[in-house]
Amino acid sequence: MIIMPSLIFKRVILLLSLILIISEAYGQSRPDSFTFLFNRVQESENAIDTLNGSAYYFDGKLYLHVSYPVNQFFFVDDRKIKIYYPESKRGYDIISDAPFDLPIVNSLIAFMKDDYGLAKIGFIIRSNSVSGDTLIAHWEHMSGPDSGKFEIYYKDDIIVKARYSAKSIFLETVLKDHKTFGGYLIPTHIETRNSSLRNSEIESLFVEQLSINPEIPDSIMNFDFPDDAVIEKRKF
Amino acid sequence: MNQTIRRYGSIFFLILSFSLIIQPITVNTYAFSNPDPVADARLHAGHESGGTWFLIGCVGGFIGYIVATAITPNPPATALVGKDEQYVATFTDVYQSEVKSIRTRNAMYGCLVGTGATVLLYVAAVAAATESSTY
Predict the structure, then answer these.
(1) Rounded-to-integer distance, Cα A192 and Cα A195, Å
(2) CA distance B3 to chain A (A)
(3) Is A149 within 8 Å of A140 (Cβ atoms)?
(4) CB A169 within 8 A of CB B25
């Protein structure tokens, strides 16, 4: 088999790009905070569900103001969640011994890390390949392939797709419609297909009016319940 | 034993990575129109790794079981976004109860298996020592 020198050159360039991307993963400046309006649509065979609101991510904390289907304030700060319903002036103050996950912003936070946040949870890059103008990095956990595999797709140095496959789980997240916000190229449509359950399901997250490193209002940064609110404390 | 640990370690990791990266994306898919908090909480609780707690019970014995009963499971925040007050209350109660049940049950099984294995080894060791001392 004869391999064209230009093809070899192209692959070498792409591989060097990948090495550069990964090596810069921990040194490059990343947005510390961002805000955006979101519209999340979930589709299954039988139903469509919509969630609208605004999101503020800062200092590892998340503040969501859900406007539909309920009016809800949702504040996540490491091991604490504050949920408040302004109409009824009732809410929950949830405290745990372990950190909570960050809804809505997960994929965006992963996207903003060049390795999709995989190294932090013990994944290491095993190999890479090229398909057209797309570079594909193949990741495995250090404990072995039984723990699932990730494929991260890079096009023009940005992540356009992430695939996870394990024994009975297959997930594909496509990051598309990238737009420049504050000098950063950010996907404004994140589509996740999940075939790990019986029915195939699709989640689409649409991002609008994204603002990078914005001024966060003090009322959001230090969110607290109103004095006249009826709050139920829950400890986990 | 090493194989068993590796196997359970692998299962544990699968669940862990699922919860860290994938679960936050997928869990909301349970909550479609007219969500049922009890059914949703049970589905979420189904992701809990019983194998890990079996191993903890097996290795830690009664202490492992105590740990399983003492640690209160964390509800997934993703499941609570955009849900009304009643849903949040019911979901967190059922989720906590279901996960705790899975953990304590598996830790107890692990504790019993671990204790049984220890007793068998002890009996075998005593028998071997007795046999060698008679010669």
Answers:
(1) 10
(2) 13
(3) yes
(4) no
First to last CA, chain B: 32
Q: What is the DSSP string of B50-107?
A: HHHHHHHHHHHTHHHHHHHHHSPPPPPGGGGTT--HHHHHHHHHHHHHHHHHHHHHHH
A207 vs A51: CA distance, rounded Å: 12
Residue of B nearest to A172 (CA): B22
CA distance B78 to B91: 12
* Rounded Cα–Cα distance for residues A154 and B125 (Å): 59
At how many degrees (to 10) do helices B50-60 and B85-134 cross? 40
Residues ≥6 apart with Cβ < 8 Å to A53: A37, A38, A64, A65, A66, A67, A68, B82
Partner A contacted by B70 (CB < 8 A): no
| Cβ neighbours of A146 in B, within 8 Å | 10, 14
- Contact A119/B at CB under 8 A: no
Query: CATH number of the domain at A6-235, please?
Result: 2.50.20.10
Confidence (pTM)? 0.76
Q: What is the largest CA-CA distance in chain B?
A: 77
CB A67 within 8 A of CB A150: no
Residue matched to tokens 């991307």: A21
Residue B1 reports pLDDT greater than 90: no
Q: Tell me the helix, strand and coil percentages in chain A, rounded to 5.
A: 15, 55, 35
What are the 10-residue block averages of pLDDT along chain A, 236 residues in total? Answer: 55 54 49 94 84 96 96 96 97 93 92 90 93 95 84 94 86 94 93 76 94 94 95 92
